[in-house]
């Protein structure tokens, strides 16, 4: 019996050692090392950054991109909002997607902070048609295709993602429309009839007076917006607690692009902004690629409309962030990233 016990102990000890051996840093890091291996790639020297030339009627310009990770079947191109904002809105993705082995590409659209900026005052390139063509040129340069290409757009980026899908969905493996409605007129209505009345009447009155007088440069305008609107519907936390990446993005916003396409007002799109009449509700039924639509309870966009969008496309899913606002990737992170990762994995293994 003693010999049997000793043999059993030795066996357990050996098994434990083998199990422990499986948990060595060398073995654990094998997948991680492959994911972060840039050797032999043309962007190794720059740490994943590539300035991609874009051909336009106004000449050739370069746009900034940065690849994070390697995955032959899961590559997510990130379209930032604004228009005229930056990839910095997405920097929290670093905290989630690498652990899932999902490759993603930061990208500043033309006119945004890290990319080239055409001549000041020339707005001829600030069109949906230009930006759709720009995304297609970026796609080709990065070698993205229907076997690996996930396109994620948030806010204005969501508009761009939809418009790209209408023209080039055969190039896409999966589409993610985040925090963006399919109709600006309906967004304006939601802002006026739902969001406005939630604000203190006196505060709303003062904001509306400033807008009526086109006094957008008045520091009071931004003061009121940040305190009473942004912290409720853009990023639900005190401004002093906002991530540095978000404050940096606000500081880097290109107002020339933003105002021309979006306008000054934060309560809908008004004036002569070029996106004022944009509406593609009737075209959603033409999107056949797997599509995830993300909405949030406190968003500037109507979550009910975005749920409807997910049913209007041919192959859709809705992700609702119950604690989120317009930047749900920050104020409802666990729900946002869990749903995003599940969607990408489900499409990848054909279980969507």
From TrEMBL:
Which biological process terms from the Gene Ontology are attached to this UniProt entry? proteolysis
Q: Which Pfam families match?
A: Abhydrolase_1
Residues at the active site: 155 (nucleophile), 299, 326 (proton donor)
- Coiled-coil ranges from the UniProt annotation: none
First and last residue of the signal peptide? 1-19
Domain AB hydrolase-1 as annotated: residue spans: 76-332
Question: What PANTHER family does the database record attribute to this sequence?
Answer: MONOACYLGLYCEROL LIPASE
Q: What is this protein called?
A: Proline iminopeptidase-family hydrolase
Which source organism does the UniProt entry give?
Leptobacterium flavescens
């Amino acid at each position: 019996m003693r010999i049997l016990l000793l043999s059993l102990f030795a066996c357990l000890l050996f098994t434990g050692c083998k199990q422990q051996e499986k948990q060595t840093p060398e073995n654990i890091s094998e997948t991680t090392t492959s994911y972060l291996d840039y050797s032999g790639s043309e962007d190794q020297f720059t740490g994943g950054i590539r300035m991609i030339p874009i051909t336009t009627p106004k000449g050739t310009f370069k746009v900034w991109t940065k690849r994070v990770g390697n995955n032959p079947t899961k590559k997510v191109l990130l379209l930032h909002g604004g228009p005229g904002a930056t990839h910095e809105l997405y920097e929290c993705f670093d905290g989630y997607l690498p652990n899932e082995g999902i490759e993603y590409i930061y990208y500043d659209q033309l006119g945004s902070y890290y990319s080239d900026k055409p001549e000041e005052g020339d707005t001829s390139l600030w069109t949906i048609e230009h930006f759709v063509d720009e995304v297609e040129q970026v796609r080709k340069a990065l070698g993205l295709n229907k076997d690996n290409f996930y396109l994620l757009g948030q806010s204005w980026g969501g508009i761009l993602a939809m418009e790209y899908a209408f023209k080039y969905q055969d190039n896409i493996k999966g589409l993610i429309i985040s925090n963006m409605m399919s109709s600006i007129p309906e967004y304006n209505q939601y802002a006026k009839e739902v969001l406005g009345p939630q604000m203190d009447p006196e505060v709303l009155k003062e904001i509306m007076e400033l807008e009526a007088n086109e006094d957008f440069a008045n520091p009071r305008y931004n003061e009121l917006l940040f305190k009473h609107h942004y912290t409720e519907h853009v990023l639900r936390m005190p401004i002093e607690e906002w991530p540095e990446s978000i404050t940096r993005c606000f500081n880097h916003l290109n107002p020339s692009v933003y105002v021309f396409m979006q306008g000054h007002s934060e309560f809908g799109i008004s004036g002569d902004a070029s996106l004022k009449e944009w509406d593609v509700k009737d075209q959603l039924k033409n999107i056949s690629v797997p599509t995830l639509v993300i909405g949030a309870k406190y968003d500037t966009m109507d979550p009910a409309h975005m749920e409807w969008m997910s049913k209007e496309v041919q192959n859709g899913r809705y992700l609702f962030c119950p604690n989120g606002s317009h930047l749900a990737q920050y104020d409802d992170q666990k729900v946002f990233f869990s749903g995003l990762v599940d969607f990408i994995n489900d499409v990848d293994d054909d279980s969507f």
